[in-house]
Design goal:
The structure holds 2 protein chains of 2 kinds. Chain A is about 75% helix and about 0% strand. Chain A is mainly alpha-helical. In chain A, helix 5 (about 130-165) packs antiparallel against helix 6 (about 180-210), helix 5 runs antiparallel to helix 8 (about 245-270) and helix 6 (about 180-210) packs antiparallel against helix 7 (about 220-240). Helices cover about 55% and strands about 10% of the residues of chain B. Classes of the chains: A mainly alpha, B alpha/beta.
């Protein structure tokens, strides 16, 4: 039952990516609108694919790596679409969709070649239950998605700024959003990430308190999450100062996201006891 | 129904001749009225811009005869000797008129390839002529199609998207940094022609604050009055460089006066917010070292000229795409024209056959005295039915004919075979 929705998602995202690229090249408003509509349809199909998979495995999507990756891709798409509507800027879609596709594709490949260890209808490993825990995970992944988006926007800023500075304007520079808009979009994205990671982390502490058994508070993931939060808060402040506004702040944003990736990979897989896939 | 065009443009006539043949709005309407009242044309439209003056017309008689009469009329209207005007005039007929107008409307026949203004000028000329009842079904259809192709070329090709002047290229670059300039401020140094072009571009973009500065305060004030700007004291750099996001300098000086320390100080005062500097002075007004400052973007006349050249090449590469669209619309128009002509030819043929039928019956039924008037009417009706049956098959075949050339050839064949010169529509 999951398969048709996965196929629909991939098709919708692929078509949307093609249209976003075409919009980037041609600037035709109708093409841009169609790209947005297809992305929305992809989001709906992606949601249904996540839902069906969760029903099939009798567990939450973030229970395993493939589910977490797919959920990350979905939340990245949601965040981007909200940002697109808020800032009325479509050109970023061509740069975000390949990342969403990469996450979705990886999740599908992992699912295909290394399916969940539990038999259908049987949960693999018990995870804390309840709305608070679900919100903790969802908000945390949403924060990472928002940070990923700010990283894409910062990389776009750095590339465009460089081209403008060295006066080498290719075909694409004329199509990209203005530098100040990219900066504003990145700020909005980081703000979303900061709010959601703060609330998500707080809910994580609440969820862990509710567990019957004694929990350790010295999970390296906690420290790295707090570090990520602090660094993004610093970015948020510095990006408004005279010395940092512009390219320097964008570089800091990219650096911060490198730490997020570190937290998502090395820390989750090798150091953390409670945060394997999120 | 033949379309004719007589006109001149920047390619065929020098500006002195173009100025003498241009039409004001009133003159255009008067000329259209006179051309129709004198029987030279049945439908008329005058398109007059600074780069072209063209008279479009439709006449039932030969378009070549109309073109001759039109040339003579233009000479008399503008009180010019034919020897002076005729060498500059071009004449187009039928499909060539359609193609020419579509190219004009798409900006392919403009001095500045792909310029947008011409589409508005074609629209205004059409609306005025239409309101003045100078146009008819053919010119209405032709100009509506021209406006459609003009919009389509601009929407589907990149002919109109890239800036083609140094000033507009600079403004587009500023928009790459700041987005819309309506909430920004700009300082223009100098009050020459280039500065005027830049100020005009800034005003077109609704710049929020426009500051002007010049070594001659008097000139700056005159400039400021003209463009609703604020005059800044020349040399008071601490004050004048602090707030603008865009600085344009086009001053004739020997040494660059916007130095690195000066801009560094200004950047510190403005909290390092982005600054776009357009150096349009020759020799340079901005020290090249300024480009290394953080969040400062410097573009010289040379850089902007390079961008304009690249854009010109890019626009040129879009021409085949635009030409293909134009050919598609020319085909559509000719098809419509052929359908209209087909209806006209068939109506004339029907009328002619009925005339012959009446004469034939009158002659042949002379000896049949026992026929009552009802019988004669009945025979006449039967023959009419036969005529309709004979006409309906070729008419339907021609209507269904997809190949335009064959359709037009068939219409011409009917005209040549069945209609006398007097009967041709």
């Amino acid at each position: 039952m999951t398969q048709p929705f996965v196929i629909l998602t991939v098709l919708a995202y692929l078509a949307s990516m093609g249209l976003y690229l075409s919009f980037l090249y041609s600037g035709k408003e109708l093409t841009g609108r169609l790209a947005t509509v297809l992305m929305f349809l992809g989001l709906v199909a992606h949601y249904l694919a996540l839902l069906m998979r969760a029903k099939g495995t009798h567990t939450v999507p973030y229970h395993d790596l493939q589910g977490s990756m797919s959920l990350f891709g979905w939340l990245l798409a949601v965040t981007y679409l909200c940002l697109e509507i808020y800032h009325r800027q479509r050109t970023v879609g061509a740069f975000v969709l390949p990342i969403i596709m990469a996450f979705l594709g990886s999740a599908y490949l992992i699912d295909h070649y290394a399916p969940p260890s539990a038999a259908p209808g049987q949960a693999v490993q018990s995870l804390p239950h309840g709305v608070v825990f679900a919100l903790h995970v969802t908000l945390s992944i949403l924060a990472y998605a928002a940070f990923a988006l700010s990283c894409v926007l910062s990389l776009m800023y750095l590339a465009e700024e460089r081209f403008l500075k060295i006066r080498r304007l290719g075909e694409v520079v004329w199509r990209l959003p203005p530098l100040e808009l990219l900066e504003r979009m990145s700020h909005t994205s980081v703000l979303v990430g900061l709010v959601t990671i703060t609330v998500g982390t707080a809910l994580g502490y609440v969820a862990i308190h509710r567990l019957p058994q004694q929990q350790t508070y010295y999970d390296p993931k906690y420290l790295v999450t707090v570090l990520v939060l602090v660094l993004y808060a610093i970015y948020f402040q510095l990006a408004r100062t005279a010395a940092w506004r512009g390219a320097r702040a964008s570089k800091l944003c990219v650096f911060n996201f490198a730490l997020v990736i570190l937290s998502f990979t090395v820390v989750n897989l090798y150091l953390s006891q409670h945060h394997r896939y999120f | 129904m033949e379309i004719v065009l007589v006109g001149l443009n920047f390619r065929t006539a020098p500006v002195e001749v173009r100025e003498r043949v241009s039409f004001s709005t009133e003159q255009a309407l008067r000329a259209a009225e006179e051309l129709r009242s004198k029987g030279i044309l049945e439908e008329t439209l005058v398109l007059s811009t600074c780069n072209r003056s063209e008279v479009y017309g439709v006449n039932a008689s030969s378009s070549r005869e109309s073109a001759g009469a039109l040339s003579s009329y233009l000479c008399s209207f503008h009180e010019l000797q034919p020897d002076l005007l005729n060498p500059s005039l071009y004449h187009h007929y039928d499909h060539d008129v359609v193609r020419h107008l579509f190219r004009v409307s798409a900006g392919l026949d403009s001095m500045l390839l792909g310029e947008a203004e011409i589409l508005g000028q074609v629209r205004d000329a059409y609306l005025r002529a239409h309101e003045g009842h100078a146009t008819g079904p053919v010119l209405n259809r032709l100009f509506q199609a021209a406006l459609e192709i003009g919009k389509r070329v601009r929407a589907e090709t990149e002919l109109g998207t890239r800036p083609m002047g140094v000033a507009s290229a600079g403004m587009k670059l500023a928009e790459r940094i700041f987005g819309k300039l309506s909430e920004r401020s700009a300082l223009v140094l100098g009050a020459g022609t280039i500065s005027e072009q830049v100020v005009s571009q800034l005003r077109d973009r609704n710049i929020k604050h426009l500051y002007l500065s010049n070594r001659s305060r008097e000139k700056a004030e005159e400039f400021a009055r003209q463009y609703n700007g604020t005059v800044m004291e020349w040399g008071d750099w601490d004050r004048s460089l602090k707030s603008p996001d865009v600085i344009v300098s086009a001053v004739g000086v020997q040494d660059a006066f916007l130095t690195k320390p000066l801009i560094e100080k200004a950047m510190a005062a403005r909290g390092n917010r982005g600054l776009f500097l357009m150096d349009l002075g020759l020799p340079r007004n901005v020290d090249p070292a300024v480009a290394s400052l953080y969040n400062v973007y410097v573009y010289t006349m040379e850089d902007l000229t390079d961008i304009v050249d690249q854009n010109r090449a890019a626009r040129q590469s879009e021409v085949p795409k635009a030409e293909a669209l134009i050919e598609e619309h020319v085909g559509k128009f000719i098809s419509w024209q052929a359908s209209v002509e087909l209806i006209g030819v068939l109506d004339t043929l029907r009328g002619s056959m009925k005339e012959r039928r009446s004469a034939f019956l009158k002659e042949k039924l002379e000896g049949f005295n026992h026929f009552t008037p009802q019988d004669r009417e009945h025979i006449s009706a039967l023959m009419d039915e036969l005529i309709e049956k004979l006409l309906i098959v070729p008419a339907e075949r021609l209507r269904a004919e997809k190949e335009l050339r064959r359709k037009i050839q068939s219409v011409e064949a009917i005209r040549a075979l069945y209609l006398s010169d007097r009967e041709k529509p």
